[in-house]
Each structure stands twice: as C-alpha cells, then as structure tokens.
Write a structure and sequence with these properties.
With 129 residues, this protein is α+β, with helices and mostly antiparallel strands. It has a single domain, classed as RutC-like (60s Ribosomal Protein L30, Chain: A). It contains two helices and six strands. Strand 4 (75-82), helix 2 (88-99) and strand 5 form a beta-alpha-beta unit.
C-alpha cells in the first residue's frame, strides 16, 4: 500500500462489518464509506423512524470526521441514498439543521433497497487537515 494512503477506523463506532475501513485518507481527501443507521454497539436501527435513522447516520459521519481530525465544514461532497424519494424533504430539513449555512456539493438518489433494510445510507468526501 502506498504511504500516501491511510486506512482509518474510528474507535467510537462499531467496527466495519465488511472488507472496508470507516474512511480512507489519500491525496489530501478523506473518503468516508457509506454509513448506515448502526449504533456504536452494533445495533442496526433499520426499523427506527426515518428521522432517527438520519440523525444516527449523521452522528456516525461526525465520529468519522472527528477521528480524522476535521469537522463538518471540511466536507466537500455528500452522497445520500434513500429507499423512498418521499423522504427527501424530511432528510433535507435534518441535513440543513446539521450543517447550518455550510453547503458542500450533494446528491440524493432513490434506491430500491439498502443493507439490513435501512432507509438511508450516506457516503462523503472531506478535505483532510
């Protein structure tokens, strides 16, 4: 593995269940793996109300950013996957509250299903410090 690539696992989150890292730092960027609504103890919250799933996923992203030594204001791009496009307004409201006036690039896509029956998954790219 080239020395310019760092595999990051965040101790405050449940270890990745698959063959991946919570994030990877390379080329001055932090690539955050898709985050599902899974608690730090590994509890899958796929049956929780949508808003609770969103907040848990955003909390997980915060933990990864903190572990990498950056904040939300380092986000460059955010990709959001939802299983029902009708969730978009609710997601957008929670996301806007989470980020405040900061607005990185973003895509929201509707998909047929997500792992564990989750209603949302978010992956992101942030600028490394």
């Amino acid at each position: 593995m080239p020395s310019e690539i760092t595999l990051n696992t965040t101790n405050t989150l449940f270890p990745p269940a698959g063959h991946y890292s919570h994030s990877v730092t390379a080329g001055g960027l932090i690539f955050i793996s898709g985050q599902l609504p899974i608690t730090a103890t590994g509890e899958k919250k796929s049956d929780a109300p949508f808003a609770e799933q969103v907040r848990l996923v955003l909390d997980n992203i915060d933990a990864i950013l903190t572990g990498a030594g950056v904040s939300r204001q380092s986000l460059v791009s955010v990709r959001v996957y939802v299983t029902d496009i009708n969730f978009w307004p609710e997601f957008n409201k929670i996301y806007a509250e989470w980020l405040g006036d900061y607005r990185p690039s973003r895509a929201v896509a509707c998909v047929s299903e997500l792992h564990y029956g989750s209603a949302i998954e978010i992956e992101a790219v942030a600028l490394a410090s």
